[in-house]
Amino acid sequence: MKAVDFFRTLRRYLRPYPGASMMLAFLLLIDVAFTTAWPLGFKVIIDSALPAKDARLLAIVIGSLLAGVTVASAASFGRDYLYAYLNANVLHDIRTAVFNHLQALSLDFYARVGTGDIMARFSSDLAAIEHAIVMAMPSAVLSALIIVLGAVMLFLLDWRLATLTVVGLMACVLAPRGVAKRATTAGYGAKQQQGRLADTVQENVTSQTVVKAFGLQRHADAGFEQQSRELARASRRFGFLSYLVERLPSVTILVFEIVVIGTGIVLVFYGYQRLGTIVAFHAMFIYISTSVTGLANVMPALLHALAGFARVDDVLDERPLVADAPGAAVAPRFSSSIRLEEVSFGYTPAHRSLIDMSLEIKKGQSVAFVGGSGSGKSTVLNLILRFYDPVSGSVRFDGHDLRHLQQESVRTQIGVVLQESILFNISVRDNVRLGNPAASDVDVEAALRAAEIHDFVSSLPEGYDTLAGARGSRFSGGQRQRIALARALVRDPAILILDEATSALDPVSEAAINETLRRVTVGRTVISVTHRLSTVTHVDRIFVLDHGRVAEEGRHEELVAARGLYAHLWRKQTGFLLNAEGDVAIIDADRLRDIPILSELSDAILEDLADKIVTERYPVDRTVVIQEDPATRFYIIVRGKVEVIRHEGQNAGSVVATLTDGDYFGDVALVENLRQTATLVTRAPTVFLSLDQLYFWALLQQAPEFRELLAGGAGHRNYSPQY
User: Fold this and answer.
1) DSSP for 326-363, written as a single string
2) Taking the alpha carbons of 205, 208, 210, 214 in that order, is the dihedral positive or negative?
3) CATH 2.60.120.10 domain range(s) in the chain
4) pLDDT number for residue 715
5) In whole angstroms, what is the distance from residue 565 CA to residue 544 CA?
6) Domain 3-316 belongs to what topology?
7) Does the structural domain 337-560 have CATH classification 3.40.50.300?
8) Torsion over CA of 124, 130, 131 and 132, rounded to 10 degrees?
């Protein structure tokens, strides 16, 4: 962005305030006119009033100067008020424009741009713009006007000296020009580096579980120090260049001041000019040189603002990947079906999450999408909600291509309950009303009653006016989900989407929420995504996804009888007995036999194992095993979700698998007496069955063929066997 772009951008934001802008310009001209005219008083006094001892002329000149001071002072007070008024409003408009534009951008933008970088636009970038507008711009504009009008006045006084002065001013402008361009580029680079550093801090703060699990403190420190050094290097370069831009005009104008005034004195000495004219010329030259210096002094702030404006414009120039087409129609009230017709989609060109998928969801049906991690379940929801558009094929709402319908008119008919239902730090009443801003207090209460959370909220000291806290921190997970469900229900949605809505809850809360969901979803079209099959046995149709395709579809009983992928997932997840509190699990010999590596063991050995297996319960974001630690236990996941994170060298850990109900790990490391080759962290409250290594080794001695079974059974897994 060049300097002219800065003023063009600023003019764009001043356009809504024409009256204030014109009045400000008028008051500036009054101030500048007096500043550039009053040195003429010296010329008149020295060249005319004093030699002629003309008291009347002397009084007129002094009186005029006093009147000019009064008018100019009044104009400056008005100018200061208008500056404050315009500054506040322009900054408000910029902040609002950026924030509103962020709301309009598609989810792909947030996947590409880090949270810290976005926050830096509102903090350091807007702070630089604010400093320039509030502090630098008034001085810059005033100085520029004084330089222009002052130069005209100099020619009226003495064209010879004025020509020398103009040459000097041109030198002042040209001297830092090349440096200023490099400084602007350096400033933009420094701002970009600030955004990356903010991203690093934000990522580190929100990933402390992984940092501590891997012992990455030193790695994190080294990475941060390296980025901080790069920022310091960029800031040092920008700082020096911006100060050089400030210094060069000052040095240049000082040299020309000596040359010009020296020439003027020579002209007086030889009688070619009068002393009063030279005094007035010198006074005006001082004003101009001071203005040049003032303009140079604010250049670093303006350069900071140039970089800030460029980064703000980067956001404003982003175009939503998903936008309403010209002439998009308002979606009719949902009455028939949602269809995916040969839909293919990928978040990146190199990978397809859905491949030629076709399916239909009829009005009033309850359907579920199940399958392994990465099979495309959540992607289907993203396309139905039109967070993304298909690469090929179409998603049809009552026969209409979603791309030809207004997004808002479709989404207002859909209620969504997510795995992590975020509440805002406003009252419960207002959190629910976010689902339907037009909802009355009666509607809000009805929704909370339907979600079976009314009695609890009413019992709180502040009732419906209770603040939810940051991200709903004042409520438990189950309570947050019920409030989120009320937020979805208050829309009276024709379609209710449940995206792993209960998977992050403990067993007791999950069972209670599921019972509530069965009651409130009667008569609605319900689309759910889940990895826990026990929650979808009652739905009208189950779509089993595998690598972006529909592998099977049908009712629960039909799919179990088909003995396909769904039946395999069902056998893996069932056969565990949980107590009423959900914190003690029991497994018998028959269920152990369904685990591939144990399938060939005798009944006696399996019964002995079942007696020695114990229950372990972990909350969300708890590290279960740490990479490079000795292996001590064999684990079976009864319910929950676990991420497998592998760390290689000094690189940050990456998620290589997600384990859910019925998956197991730790066997190969135990039998081979290896150290753990990955870290496992819970991503939902998780209940395990675990077997101590002593019993595991005893099993090896008791059944020598077990080692061979391990190698053969590992192939049945949907993840690498080295965990």
Assistant:
1) TTPBPPPPP-SEEEEEEEEE-SBTTB-SEEEEEEEEET
2) positive
3) 577-716
4) 40
5) 8
6) ABC transporter transmembrane region fold (1.20.1560)
7) yes
8) 110
Instruction: Using alpha carbons, list the distances in angstroms from residue 276 to 38, 60, 68, 522.
Output: 13, 17, 20, 96
Helices in 574-714 by DSSP H: which ranges?
A: 589-593, 603-612, 667-671, 693-702, 706-713
Global confidence as pTM: 0.69
Grade residue 355 by pLDDT with cuts at 50, 70 and 90: very high
- Dihedral over Cα of 530, 536, 540, 543: its sign: positive
Q: How confident is the model at residue 711 (pLDDT cuts 50, 70, 90)?
A: low
How far apart, in whole angstroms, are the C-alpha atoms of residue 165 and residue 292? 12
pLDDT band of residue 354 (cuts 50, 70, 90) is: very high
Position 397 pLDDT exceeds 90: yes
Q: Given this structure, which CATH class describes domain 577-716?
A: mainly beta
Cβ-based neighbour number of residue 557 at 10 Å: 9
Every domain range in the chain assigned CATH 1.20.1560.10 = 3-316
Q: Which two three-digit tokens encode residue 77?
A: 């007070």
pLDDT of residue 428: 92
CA–CA distance, 35 with 32 (Å, rounded to integer) = 5
Instruction: Answer for the pair 457, 448: CB distance below 8 angstroms, yes or no.
Output: yes
Residues forming beta bridges with residue 526, ordered by sequence position: 366, 496
* Residue bearing the bigger pLDDT, 308 or 5: 308
* pLDDT tens, position by position, 318-338: 888 888 889 899 999 999 999
**Whether 247 contacts 296, CB under 8 Å:** yes
Report the distance separating Cα 122 and Cα 268, nearest Å. Answer: 58
CATH 3.40.50.300 intervals, the chain? 337-560
C-alpha 369/C-alpha 542 separation (Å) is: 6
- CB atoms under 10 Å from CB of 333, counted, come to 8
Is the model more confident about 235 or about 370? 370
Mean predicted confidence (pLDDT) in 144-153: 78
pLDDT tier, 213 (very low <50, low <70, confident <90, very high otherwise): very low
d(CA 23, CA 83): 11
